[in-house]
Design brief:
Chain lengths: ~375, ~270, ~70
């Protein structure tokens, strides 16, 4: 029997987190993300979890990493200005290799911008917002059903690859309601953090095994070591020797690179015979999908490539889709971010056409269709 | 077990400058840890940046050394997610009170069960001698070449006003008092703050005619008075003095217990 | 008359800051010509432990001399 409900994207995210096994959430109120933590404040105690509203987003990010070092699945939720503040401790999580999920329900920026207006201005920041080079897995679903599944995936990736995972949403998909039966959705395996049998006396926390990923035993479990953001050796102790620094930075970045094909998620619609390819994410990809159908009714072969994994960017799948087209159109609600990645991937023979809208409203299908008809 | 089992002997000597009495706090801490027989596997040390933030990596505990000022934010996540674990934050004054001031205030307000030890050396040592929110008026620092122009924080008053249920001050000269104070703080249920006056001969001393470690410690001896002594002193006499002793030792519901009670019977 | 207390300085940890010397109530310590701490008058030690507790490098250990009964 189907138990379909009209559910909001933000609630699907909260319920996906519970499904994944989240047991600690810290957050600071910010529109348009707050529904997620409101739901979790209500539901977490019922499963033995804890929610706390911290004094700011810096503290929220710190608190979830504190829980993570204890082996607890942890998450925080924010939007643009809060995401700015979280960058410092996101880098800490990447450097110290502590899993966690950071949800950013994007709004119109920069700065305070428009709290209730959608935006897609954080695609680049999600990967490059911090100092130094560190890995980032960034996912961006586009429907209520997918938000649920991808939230579980975000936790899975975090625990599997021992790194913060950013779950991007936007005001539109966060506040959009769709008719879904979340219980019926197959989210697949729930990944738990790896453990080791190596005795504490022989344990080297930051020594990656053949997977390239370290096994960090939770604090309080008999393993005593140092977790820190300073350059450190395989024991976690400060070490700034060139050889050690090179090895550490290689390890934290290459662990994502070498597994990128397993991390890539994307969706293609009618790309096989397309002359024009649309590349779009989040709310805009819903308009773009509409355009594929409308354009084809007019005899224009348009396809859609929708990255769900934004970082590491699914370059090879996009390159395959681009190999068959003459033009790629990139509609996005910002000054131009996704298009930079597309330009890096595309062959010279393909023309890249941007559609940038930054007025705090959705790019509508007709706006994309107009450009399609111009370039066809 | 001896106090030496609470430090990583193989890592010593400490990286600190000669006469840096942050090390004296470490000395007292290791002895008190041994006296209380702290369970090294059920205690987590949280620290951050600066000289006082680096020393705790020489302690034989699980140590989480985080971003500047954020020790108490991370510590809150540790304690709330695992209330059975003892949490101790070891910080410097710039770390706890400047960049981390907001977290300090709110951890005190929540009365979350942890011990915050703030080593007050009145200067940013690791970065080369810039003024801190604790640098005394008139003292010289690289960023206060004409002398410190701002007033200094009273850590204990801040902690008390914010709601900490144990607040005390000690110093690196009165070491027996320091050990007693740390012991009381570590046994306290709730948010416990101990400010420890320490000395930085290299960065504070050198710029203030006190480069000699013994002279720096002599200064601490001279500027500290007990509560009993302070009661007999005029405000003029107390200017520039630090009162050592316990200022707050009360009981108020602790955060993780409040959570446990609020959610008793819910779920698992 | 034998000594009551054994004072040991771990020279690998000691940075010769002089805090032990400056504040020892019995003036047990002196400087040598290279500005290193020397335990010159161990017999004066009363075992107050202040040097051990104050040492910022955790380098001093003061131990009560055990009765050597088996000799």
């Amino acid at each position: 029997m189907s138990r379909r409900e009209l559910i909001q994207g933000n609630e699907a995210c909260a319920r996906g987190a519970l499904k994944a096994g989240v047991r600690f959430v810290a957050g600071y109120p910010i529109t348009p993300s707050t529904d997620v933590v409101e739901f979790l404040a209500q539901e977490l105690p019922k499963v033995g979890g804890r929610f706390i509203q911290m004094e700011d987003e810096i503290a929220s990010m710190g608190a979830i990493l504190g829980a993570s070092v204890m082996g607890v699945k942890a998450m925080t939720v924010t939007s643009g200005p809060g995401f700015d503040l979280m960058q410092e401790n996101i880098a800490f999580g990447a450097m110290a290799q502590l899993p966690c999920v950071v949800v950013n329900v994007q709004r119109s920026g920069p700065s305070t911008g428009g709290a209730t207006l959608p935006g897609q201005g954080d695609l680049i920041q999600a990967k490059y917002g911090t100092s130094g080079d560190s890995p980032r897995i960034v996912l961006y679903p586009n429907s209520v059903e997918e938000i649920y599944r991808i939230t579980v995936k975000a936790f899975n990736y975090a625990e599997q690859y021992m790194t913060p995972v950013i779950l991007l949403m936007d005001e539109i998909i966060g506040h959009m309601r769709e008719d879904v039966d979340l219980e019926a959705i197959d989210v697949g395996e729930i990944v738990e953090r790896r453990r080791t049998d190596i005795p504490p006396s022989e344990y080297r926390p930051y020594e990656a095994d053949e997977t390239g990923i370290p096994i960090l035993m939770p604090f309080g479990s008999g393993y005593r070591y140092v977790v820190q953001g300073m350059h450190h050796d395989i024991y976690g102790m400060p070490n700034t020797s060139p050889q050690n620094v090179q090895a550490t930075i290689y390890q934290i970045n290459s662990k994502i690179d070498r597994h990128k094909e397993k991390i890539w998620l994307w969706e293609e619609n009618q790309t096989e015979d397309a002359d024009i390819l649309l590349v779009a994410v989040g709310c805009v990809s819903r308009s773009a999908l509409e355009v594929v159908g409308q354009a084809r009714k007019k005899g224009i072969k348009v396809g859609l490539f929708r990255p769900i994994t934004i970082w590491p960017f699914p370059e090879e799948p996009l390159a395959r889709a681009l190999a068959r087209v003459k033009t790629v159109i990139v509609p996005e609600m910002n000054w131009g971010q996704l298009i930079h990645i597309v330009k890096e991937v595309k062959p010279d023979s393909v023309t890249a056409v941007p559609i940038n809208k930054y007025d705090g409203t959705l790019i509508m299908p007709e706006e994309i269709l107009k450009v399609v008809e111009e370039v066809k | 077990m001896s106090w030496k089992d609470y430090i990583k002997q193989q890592m010593f000597p400490l990286f600190t400058c000669s006469g840096c009495t942050h090390g004296t706090v470490t000395n007292a801490f290791a002895r008190v840890a041994d006296e209380l027989k702290l369970d090294k596997n059920k205690t987590v040390i949280v620290c951050a940046i600066g000289c006082a933030g680096r020393i705790p990596t020489f302690l034989d505990f699980p140590v989480l050394r985080v971003t500047h000022g954020r020790a108490l934010a991370f510590a809150t996540g540790i304690k709330l997610s695992r209330p059975d674990v003892k949490v101790i934050a070891l910080m410097g004054d710039g770390d706890a009170l400047a960049i981390g001031g907001n977290h300090f205030i709110h951890a005190a307000r929540r009365n979350i069960d942890m011990t915050a030890i703030v080593s007050r050396n009145e200067i940013y040592g690791m970065t080369g001698g810039q003024y801190a929110p604790t640098t005394p008026a008139g003292a010289r620092a690289t960023t206060a070449p004409y002398g410190m122009l701002e007033p200094a924080f009273d850590t204990c008053k801040v902690a008390e006003a914010a709601g900490a249920t144990y607040v005390a001050r000690s110093d690196a000269y009165h070491v027996q008092h320091l050990q007693r104070t740390l012991k009381a703080a570590l046994q306290h249920k709730g948010f416990a703050v101990v400010e420890v006056l320490t000395s930085c001969p290299t960065q504070f001393g050198r710029r203030n005619n006190l480069a000699d470690p013994a002279k720096m410690l002599e200064r601490i001896k001279e500027m500290t008075v007990t509560k009993a002594q302070a009661e007999k002193m005029t405000p003029e006499e107390l200017a520039g003095k630090f009162v050592i002793g316990e200022f707050v030792n009360t009981s108020r519901p602790e955060l993780t217990e409040i959570y446990a009670q609020a959610f008793a019977g819910m779920g698992v | 008359m034998g000594r009551s207390f054994n004072i040991e300085i771990n020279t690998k940890w000691c940075k010769n800051c002089g805090i032990c010397l400056a504040f020892c109530p019995q003036k047990v310590f002196t400087w040598d010509e290279k500005q290193r701490i020397v335990i010159s008058y161990p017999e004066k030690c009363t075992g107050c432990l202040l040097c051990e507790y104050r040492c910022p490098d955790l380098a001093i250990e003061v131990r009560k001399v055990e009765e050597e009964s088996h000799e």
